[in-house]
Specification:
Layout: H1 2-16, H2 22-34, H3 45-63, H4 67-80, E1 86-88, E2 97-99, H5 108-127, E3 132-134, E4 143-145, H6 158-182
Antiparallel strand pairs: 1-2, 3-4
Helix pairs in contact: 1-2, 1-3, 1-5, 3-4, 3-5, 4-5
Length: about 200
């Protein structure tokens, strides 16, 4: 599940950080370290383009409308993976874990795509449902992981959900206020609250 969470965090930061400058490298590097990558990362501006390309491919899994569509996207991505499934500990530096990229020192983009496809494939297999979705807020480009049972999730965060609820409430109230203004209001002449004309 940590790999899937890292996938979401990287897709989201790569979608936010459009450039390839030092700030973008730093933001992506912080996510990698947060999810267990060892420093020094050796991450450069050229790596961001590969990572961003992988993020856009992975985003299609989250955009899938149903489990069959998500599986089709994952199967397509699995078909393009360059390595064979293997276990590695990076010469004892970390615990044993699976890799699907071509080499333990594969380029960042290849590693990100392969490890993420593997994690999302396992989630789909385990839950028999899409691994997540796109935030329903029109102003948010983020993806999110589904949490399994419970009501279907639509937003990447409580913040987005709250912002959209408040906006919907304001639109509804604005419509009510507009209707009231068109009809002359509840307390217009001839419709006084005390019943007198």
């Amino acid at each position: 599940m940590d790999t899937a969470r890292r996938t979401v965090a990287l897709i989201n930061v790569l979608c936010e950080q459009r450039g390839v400058g030092a700030d973008a490298v730093k933001a992506v590097g912080e996510v990698l370290v947060e999810y267990g990558e060892l420093e020094p990362l050796g991450l450069g501006e050229g790596d961001l383009e590969e990572l961003r390309a992988a993020a856009l491919l992975l985003r299609e899994v989250f955009a899938a409308s149903d489990v069959d569509s998500a599986a089709a996207v994952l199967n397509g991505l699995l078909g393009g993976v360059q390595g064979r499934l293997r276990l590695t500990s990076h010469e004892g530096a970390v615990g044993w874990h699976p890799h699907l990229d071509s080499d333990d020192e594969a380029p960042w983009g290849e590693w990100f795509l392969a490890s993420s496809v593997l994690a999302l494939t396992v989630l789909l297999w385990d839950r028999q449902a899409p691994p997540g979705g796109l935030c329903a807020s029109p102003s948010c480009p983020h993806v999110y992981l589904a949490h399994g049972s419970g009501p279907e999730r639509r937003y990447c965060s409580r913040r987005c959900a709250t912002r959209e609820r408040v906006a919907a409430h304001r639109r509804a109230r604005g419509g009510a206020h507009s209707e009231e203004a068109r009809s002359g209001g509840a307390h217009s002449e001839g419709a006084r609250s005390d019943g007198r004309a």
